[in-house]
Amino acid sequence: MSTPPLHRHQLAWLAPTGWRDVLARSWEPTLHDSLRRWACEPWPLVVTRQPVPSQACGSIALGLPTPAAWGRRRLSIPASREHVLFFGEFPEAVHVAAMLPAPDRAAWRHLCDDLGAAGVLPRVHGSFGWQWLTGMGYVHADSDVDVCIEVSDAGQADAVAALLHAASCLGRRLDGELVFERGRAVAWREWTDWRAGRVKSVLVRHLHGCTLSRDPRVDSPLPAESLS
Fold this sequence. Notes:
Layout (H helix, E strand, L loop, with lengths): L10 E4 L1 H8 L5 H12 L4 E3 L5 H4 L2 E7 L8 E7 L3 E5 L13 H16 L5 E3 H9 L10 E6 L3 H13 L7 E6 L5 E3 H8 L6 E5 L2 E5 L15
Parallel strand pairs: 7-8
Antiparallel strand pairs: 1-2, 1-5, 2-3, 3-4, 6-7, 8-9, 10-11
């Protein structure tokens, strides 16, 4: 059976053999205890920036942002792809409505309905996504709501960005990305500025890093000297 291609914000559940390899590495005692609890739940890790395919050697770069009780650390955890039981996704945006302040919940559900009508499925990652998955304390008073929304073309991206802008009256800052073909992701606010002509280029994030581009819809990175 073929394995799915990797993408950013993808979740990965490790098999027990994979966790044994992880726990056998040299960790600080408190981190080792935390990772052992994570493995016992079991909770997922997240796909992070990957080496270029020619350097991958069957390994996947995974990550774990720890909750507040564990120091809010960002752990890098390489694992063998054969030790991944299955992949999954962060929750659909509508599922985190109950985590928002009561006055914002109706507006949030309305935004989710409007995005659905625009033909997209918003998902929430970041603090809200991790707290929804684990029940651990990730969200704090200044936490953004981070969304990830796949779009098919510029017209759909414009419609989605307009809906997100209109929802900026929510009590939480609404952050996140529009994801184009082949996983090219652009912050929705940067997309809005680029479409309005306020900026000439935007930062495009992808599985192997990021590039500055004059047109995020296509592979059009600026010359290397433009990034210095």
